[in-house]
Amino acid sequence: MELLSLRTFQAVVEEGGILAASRKLNTVQSNVTGRIRRLEEELGTELFIRKGRGLELAPSGRVLLDYARRMLMLERQTAAAVRLVGESAGELRIGAMETFAALHLPRALKAVRAGHRGLELRVFTDTSAALAERIVHHKLDCAFVAGPVVHPELVFDELIVEELVQVHAAGSDPRQQPLILFREGCAYRTRALAWQRSQGHALADAMEFGTLEGILGCVAVGLGWTLMPRRVVEQSPLADELVIEAVPPEIGRVPTGMIRLREAPQLAAMRTLAAALAQAPAQLAA
Predict the structure, then answer these.
(1) Boundaries of each HTH lysR-type domain copy (predicted)?
(2) pLDDT for 123 beyond 90
(3) Which residues are within 8 A (CB) of 16 and not within 5 positions of it... i.e. 6 or more apart?
(4) Range of the domain at 10
(5) Do 169 and 188 reside in the same domain of the chain?
């Protein structure tokens, strides 16, 4: 089974068809069709169900997709690991929550740049749940998320403890305001909703925003309240317009760390990332 065939198969699935896959792979449609046909002949089963001009994954195709992603990820990690031994070259795909990316990641990335000068770094931000899913599907090498994380395919290495605080505009009463939070999948969201329920807020509704700046900006003008890491609020340009209030430890203390695939090799650059964060616990811990 050739890796090129598996890469082509994955592209067809992820791009939604032969034509889009051929464009992504920079080849002609006949090459894509031929590779898929040979793969089906080799495996002795149909990988797609043809519906008119469209394709739908057959049950055997869904099974192959999971293994194809694993094999292609292992191929990429193997090549990267070998290169890192000598030339410190390759690519590292890193995921992070937006708050973590803004607060902690720059220093850690600087350490990786210094220790692995030929390494290409790619950073993606998303919610903790979405980042964990991307790791499981072999689309990221590691990610920094709020924990604890319990998953059979993932390892969670706690690095710091964030302190979440209640934030609202000066002169406003958060008990009479809606909650402003990140979209579904954010670990802070779950804690904020639990805190809202426990305090019996008069308004149980919530507004969603996709960015840190959007949330703090709306809070600053009195549109609502939120839970946010203390250091994020203190370092915000809007800090003078915001009131910070502590919440109980069961709500406010959030273990935060790196997740990675349990079966995948931990690259040297990933260890450098983790070490850069763990070296200054007094500055990072709540």
Answers:
(1) 1-58
(2) yes
(3) none
(4) 3-77
(5) yes
